[in-house]
Amino acid sequence: MSDHQTQSRSASPTAAELKTARDEAAAWYAKMHGKVTHREVTDFYAWRADSLNDAAYSQVEALTQGVRDVAGDPRIQAIGQDLQARRRRRGGALARLKARPGPWITGVGLAAAAVLAGVLLTTQPFGQTYRTAVGERRIVALADGSTIDLNTDSQVRVRLSRDRRAITLDRGQALFAVAHDSARPFIVTAGDTAVRAVGTRFEVYRTGAAVRVILAEGRVQVTQAHTPAPTMMRAGTRLDLAGKAPARPVAIDVAAATGWTEGRLTFQDAPLAQAVAEVNRYSRKKVVLGPGVPADELVNGIFDAGDTTAFVKGVAASLDLKSAARDDGAIELRGPVPTATPKA
């Protein structure tokens, strides 16, 4: 994939350039809907900055959306249901068919097979589980047209049914772009917190018993098991939930808070200990605070997620700290060495 694209083109692209853009768009689409690193996400946005690449990628997205739209056709759903009924009656027949594909699995038949796979997926009783390792990021495209942007070291379970779209966030952080479907609410559960949406874009971050919800677009309803009334959130707000203490949404900079989706970590007057904990989520090379380092010193800056070395250098320079590698592979931030007072 090219890494030296320009922002726009003044001349009409050649046939070879068009083919290259289409091929790269297809490859990027496949990659971005699987497990990707934050570096790859940065490379993707750099590639898409080129107008020809952007147009090619948009065509791939439109084609995929068209396939998803067909999946909602009652006739296709009926075929899927019929296949499931046959599977129950014939036991392992589908497994044998998979081993001996017939001539219909070509051309349009292949697209239809993909649609049917999506229909079958929506009715699986146990759903699907998606997870990421430390430093990984994954974009999951659901059969209803929604997407889940799964951050580092996170896990979600997805179950789509006829009357609801149920997501369980077991751990970590995810940004949900919800396709509008008033007949099937989109509900994300994290512990005893449930976030209900119809068509919107929001983030849920679960760490232990604490849950944070950020609403980028639309409106969502947040409920907790121990509270009698739900909390309504508006776009541009954050809700922090921990224990049984009441909480209210507060206005935030959504672009900064969700910058991880583009491989960025933005700190605005963040305590050093909090910034270190956030940076440590994205790398197995950990940062630790040594004796005498002020954990509540404020940090400001934008860093690449996963670039621990750059973070350490930036913080050490701005806060007059030193850094040293430890035997266990971690990097320790240390306070300045006190200057000895000369004897009189």
List the helices and strands and how they pair.
Elements lengths: L14 H18 L2 E3 H11 L2 H21 L2 H17 L2 H7 L8 H15 L5 E4 L4 E6 L5 E4 L4 E6 L4 E13 L8 E5 L2 E5 L3 E7 L2 E8 L1 E6 L6 E4 L2 E5 L8 E2 L2 H4 L6 E8 H9 L6 E3 L8 E7 L3 H12 L2 E4 L5 E4 L10
Parallel strand pairs: 6-7, 16-19
Antiparallel strand pairs: 1-3, 2-5, 3-4, 4-6, 5-6, 6-9, 7-8, 8-11, 9-10, 10-13, 11-12, 13-14, 15-17, 18-19
Helix pairs in contact: 1-3, 3-6, 4-6
Keywords: Membrane, Transmembrane, Transmembrane helix
GO molecular function: sigma factor antagonist activity
Protein name: Anti-FecI sigma factor, FecR
What's the story with the biggest beta sheet? 14 strands, mixed
What is the first-to-last residue Cα distance?
68 Å
Q: Tell the overall outline.
A: globular
- Would you tell me the overall average pLDDT? 80
- Helical run tally: 9
**Overall tally of structural domains:** 4
Strand content: 25-35%
Any idea of the CATH class of the largest domain?
Answer: Mainly Beta
pLDDT < 50 runs, ≥5 residues: 1-6, 92-126
Organism: Caulobacter sp. (strain K31)
Protein name: Anti-FecI sigma factor, FecR
Domain FecR protein: 129-221
GO molecular function, one term: sigma factor antagonist activity
